[in-house]
C-alpha cells in the first residue's frame, strides 16, 4: 500500500524553543506572533495538493490492475489443470499406461508453470510497489517545496514569527489557523500559472527492482516569515 499523501513539516528546535520561551522574553522585546497550519487540510483541499494526490492514486491503481490481471490468469491456469485431472480420472480405465502417464506429466508441468507464474508475479508486484513508493516519496517532497513559499508569503503578510503544525499543537484556537489563507494563495498561483501544475506521470513497469525502501515521513524546513 502506498503511503497516504499527507506531507509533514517538521519544526526546527529553534522554533519550538522560541515558542516555549515566549513568556520569558526580556523586557522591550515584543512577544512573537504564532500561527498554526494543518498540512493535511492544505494537501487535500488545495489545487496543488489534489494534483499530486491524483498522481499517487494513479500509481496505486496500476498496482491493483496488475494484481487483478495476475489473479485472472491464475484462475485460467487452475481451470486448465482441473480439466486435465478430471479427464484423467474419467478415462483412467480406458487409457493405456503410456497415455495415462503422459496426462499425468502434463498436469505436473502445468502445475509447475503455475507456481513459476505465481513467483514471477509476486516479484513483479513487489518491484512495482517499490517503484511506486519511491515515486510517491518524490511527489511528497516536490509538493512541500512548492507549497512552502505560499506558507512563507502568508506568514510575512500577517507578521507571523513562528508557525506550528496542528500535529504538534496540543490545543489550538481556530482563529490562529492560517491553512485557508495558504490554500487561497496557492490556488491563486496555480490559476495564474497553469504550467506550475504537476504534470500527470505514469509509472513505467520496472525491469529491475529499484533500491527504494519504504518511505518515512518527509521532513522539511520550518516555515519562516
Architecture overview:
This protein has a single domain, classed as Skp domain (Protein Binding, DinI Protein, Chain A), CATH 3.30.910.20. The protein contains 5 helices and 2 strands; from the N terminus they run H-E-H-H-H-E-H. It is rod-shaped, with a radius of gyration of 28 Å. The chain has a two-stranded parallel ribbon with strand order 1-2. Helix 2 crosses helix 3 and helix 4 crosses helix 5. Mean pLDDT is 80; it is low at 9-22 and 199-225. Helix content is 61%, strand content 4%. It is mostly helical and 225 residues long. It has helices at 13-21, 39-45, 47-91, 97-158, 179-192, and strands spanning 34-37, 162-165.
As a percent range, the share of strand residues is under 5%
CATH superfamily: Skp domain
CATH topology: Protein Binding, DinI Protein, Chain A
What is the name of the CATH architecture?
2-Layer Sandwich
Integer average pLDDT: 80
Short description:
With 225 residues, the protein is mostly helical. Helices cover 61% and strands 4% of the residues.
Task: Give the helix/strand layout.
Blueprint: H1 13-21, E1 34-37, H2 39-45, H3 47-91, H4 97-158, E2 162-165, H5 179-192
Parallel strand pairs: 1-2
Helix pairs in contact: 2-3, 2-5, 3-4, 4-5
Task: List the main descriptive attributes of the protein structure presented here.
Protein Binding, DinI Protein, Chain A; 5 helices; two-stranded parallel ribbon; 225 residues; mainly alpha; 2 strands; disordered C terminus
Amino acid at each position: 500500500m502506498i503511503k497516504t499523501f499527507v506531507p509533514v513539516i517538521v519544526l526546527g528546535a529553534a522554533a519550538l524553543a522560541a515558542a516555549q520561551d515566549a513568556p520569558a522574553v526580556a523586557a522591550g522585546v515584543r512577544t512573537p506572533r504564532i500561527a498554526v497550519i494543518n498540512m493535511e487540510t492544505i494537501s487535500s483541499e488545495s489545487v496543488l495538493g489534489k494534483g499530486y494526490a491524483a498522481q499517487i492514486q494513479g500509481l496505486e491503481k496500476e498496482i491493483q490492475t496488475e494484481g487483478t490481471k495476475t489473479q485472472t490468469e491464475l484462475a485460467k491456469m487452475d481451470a486448465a489443470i482441473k480439466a486435465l485431472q478430471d479427464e484423467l480420472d474419467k478415462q483412467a480405465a480406458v487409457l493405456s499406461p503410456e497415455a495415462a502417464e503422459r496426462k499425468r506429466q502434463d498436469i505436473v508441468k502445468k502445475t509447475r508453470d503455475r507456481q513459476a507464474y505465481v513467483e514471477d508475479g509476486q516479484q513483479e508486484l513487489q518491484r512495482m510497489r517499490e517503484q511506486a513508493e519511491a515515486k510517491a516519496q518524490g511527489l511528497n517532497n516536490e509538493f512541500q517545496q512548492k507549497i512552502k513559499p505560499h506558507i512563507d508569503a502568508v506568514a510575512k503578510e500577517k507578521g507571523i514569527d513562528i508557525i506550528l503544525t496542528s500535529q504538534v499543537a496540543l490545543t489550538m484556537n481556530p482563529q490562529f489557523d492560517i491553512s485557508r489563507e495558504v490554500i487561497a494563495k496557492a490556488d491563486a498561483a496555480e490559476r495564474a500559472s497553469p504550467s506550475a501544475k504537476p504534470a500527470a506521470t505514469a509509472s513505467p513497469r520496472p525491469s529491475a527492482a529499484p533500491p527504494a525502501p519504504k518511505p518515512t515521513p518527509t521532513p522539511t524546513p520550518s516555515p519562516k516569515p
